[in-house]
Structure formats: C-alpha cells, structure tokens
Amino acid sequence: MARIGFIGLGNMGGPMAANLVKAGHKVAAFDLSADRMGAAVAAGAAASADASAAVSGADLVITMLPSGREAETVYDGPGGLISAARTNTLLVDCSTIDVATARRLNAAAAGRGLILLDAPVSGGVAGAAAASLTFMVGGPAEGFAKAEPILKAMGKAVIHAGEAGAGQAAKICNNMILGVSMIAVCEAFVLAERLGLAAEKLFEISSKSSGQCWSLTSYCPVPGPVPGAPSNRGYQPGFTAAMMLKDLRLAQEAAIAGGTATPLGAEAAALYGLFVGAGDAQTDFSGIIRMIRGERG
Ligand code: NAD
C-alpha cells in the first residue's frame, strides 16, 4: 500500500484515482472542481484542501491535468509541487503536454533532488475506467522502477520510453500515426463508396491486406464492420476530435521546434482543425469521415 497524492480528477483522472483506491492504496485527491472532488471521495479517496496538502506525506504524486499550462502552474507555480514535495516523493505527470515543458519541469524537479516522470497514457476514458491504459514513461530508471507497480494498478502496459520527455515524445508520435492513418482510412472508404465497392467488402479485404491498421480494424469509421467502434453510435466519443487536434498540434510544435519535416502530420492537424472549427470538437475523431465525404465542414 502506498500513500498517493492525485491531482486532476477529470474524465481520466477520476477513474484512475478510483482504481488506485480499489488496488488498496491510500489516495489524497485534489481538483479545482467541487463536483470532481465529490466523485473521488465517493470512490474512496480522501479530500485534500489544495495541491500541496495532497503532496504532503505522499510516497508518490500523480497529476492528470488538461495541458502544459496547468502542469506548469501545479508543479512550478507559487507553492507548486516541486517546492512542496519531500525529496523522497516521486512525481508522475500523466497529462499529455508539450515535450519542451515536460523537459523543463523534469529539470526543475531534478534541481531540488526530486524525480518527476512524464507518463502520458493511451486508452482513453474507457481504458481509464477498465484499468487498461498504456503508460509511456520518460525519466530516470530508478523512478520508473518505483512507479511501475503503482501505474500497473491503472493500466495493462507500462513502458519505459527513455529519459525525461521521452514519454511525451512517444505519445505525440503515436497519435500522429493515429491521426494520419484515420484520415487515410476515411478517404479510402469514401473513395470505395464512390466506386460502388461495398464498405463491408473493403473492410474484409483490407483487414487481411497491406492496408490493415488500428484505425481500420479496431476503430472502423464506417458503421458495421467493428461493432464497438464509435461509428455505430453516431460518432459519440471515444476519443474526441478536440483531443486529437490537441495531440497533432503538440506534434507539430515539436516538429517545427526541431526542424523535422512531418508534412502528413501537418495536413492531419489542418484537417482536424477544420473539423473542430466546424463544430465537431466533441465528435469522435473517426467522425471526420463525414467532412471528407462532404457532409460537414
Ligand atoms: P479533464 O478536463 O476532464 O480533466 C482535467 C481536470 O484537471 C479537471 O477536472 C480540472 O478541474 C482539473 N484541473 C485543472 N487545473 C487544475 C489545477 N490547477 N489544480 C487541480 N486540478 C486542476 O481532462 P481529461 O480528459 O481527464 O484529460 C486529462 C489529460 O489526459 C489531458 O492532458 C489529456 O490530453 C490526456 N488524455 C485524455 C484522454 C481522453 O480520452 N480524455 C486520453 C488520453 C490522454
């Protein structure tokens, strides 16, 4: 049993904190939202008055915040975790944030003798609820070894990606593959429709051919072939287009900062920008097939 501070109890953090309680850990929880706090307490966590109260006495602190801006405030703002934590407390940021901020915060923590791991996740809200997330972890091996058994209570795979920032790098590279491949699969289904090829037949053939990929076989953007996919429930998320756009823009920021050419990643970011701008921020990201078909946007 570990004493864990958990900050950021939203769509992801709420069920993740609940899974830590279920695994027998003692969780001190904090969120700016009273409703989110209430749900965490109902799940068995103790309420903390603020972030520094959640960190006091903790063996490990997990944060699950919207973006780099909030992570910057919570870790390095006035009274932030980096100044409030005891030096033997391990800090683990599971939020998806930009690589540059992750590296800066990890270095600021190291300056106080603390280890801060970047450990973003894949698997979405369903994975958070089912404790089947994948964690991609950046930071020293010693910190990874300590965090791994605790992260396993919330996920099915916990992978050490490398040094500080490597977890965030893995997350944005993975999601750039996902965004680009989803658009490619959508374009193929729309072209098939126009050519008179049945969607079921394209699925049957491509799922056994070289076009096979996760966007096709696990998350098919046309209803029918994959019963659990959001396409069968009017593109309710799942993984929202706004989240996909956030991750594609983080990938573009990193690519531009390092001078890496990622033209398909840039095009995917532009297309998801149009889709979100047309009012589909909360639509599942596979719903972009409607825009590609000319139905939206
Ligand atoms: P969310 O907006 O539902 O939750 C974020 C929570 O952080 C909110 O409850 C908010 O009140 C709280 N918060 C913000 N600032 C705070 C502060 N200063 N102190 C304390 N609490 C604060 O977001 P989410 O969907 O849970 O996503 C969290 C992170 O996980 C994001 O970085 C996101 O990119 C990543 N992620 C989300 C998904 C998904 O499907 N939702 C999947 C993978 C990764």
Separation of the first and last Cα atoms: 51 Å
Summarize model confidence as the mean pLDDT. 97
Low-confidence parts, pLDDT < 50 over ≥5 residues? none
Number of helices: 14
The strands making up the biggest β-sheet line up spatially as: 3-2-1-4-5-6
What are the key terms here?
binds nicotinamide-adenine-dinucleotide; 297 residues; three-stranded mixed sheet
Secondary-structure blueprint of this entry?
Layout: E1 3-7, H1 13-22, E2 26-30, H2 34-42, E3 46-47, H3 51-55, E4 60-63, H4 68-76, H5 81-84, E5 90-93, H6 99-111, E6 116-118, E7 121-122, H7 124-130, E8 133-138, H8 141-151, E9 155-162, H9 166-195, H10 199-206, H11 214-217, H12 241-258, H13 263-280, H14 288-292
Parallel strand pairs: 1-2, 1-4, 2-3, 4-5, 5-6, 8-9
Antiparallel strand pairs: 7-8
Helix pairs in contact: 1-7, 4-6, 9-12, 9-13, 12-13
Bound molecules: nicotinamide-adenine-dinucleotide.
Residues 7-13, 30-33, 36, 51, 64-66, 70, 73-74, 95-96, 121, 124-125, 239, 243, 246 line the site of nicotinamide-adenine-dinucleotide (NAD).
Describe it.
The protein is of the alpha/beta class. Helices cover 51% and strands 13% of the residues. The chain has a 6-stranded parallel sheet with strand order 3-2-1-4-5-6. A 3-stranded mixed sheet has the order 7-8-9. α1 links the parallel β1 (3-7) and β2 (26-30). α9 crosses α12 and α9 packs across α13. Nicotinamide-adenine-dinucleotide is lined by residues 7-13, 30-33, 36, 51, 64-66, 70, 73-74, 95-96, 121, 124-125, 239, 243, 246.
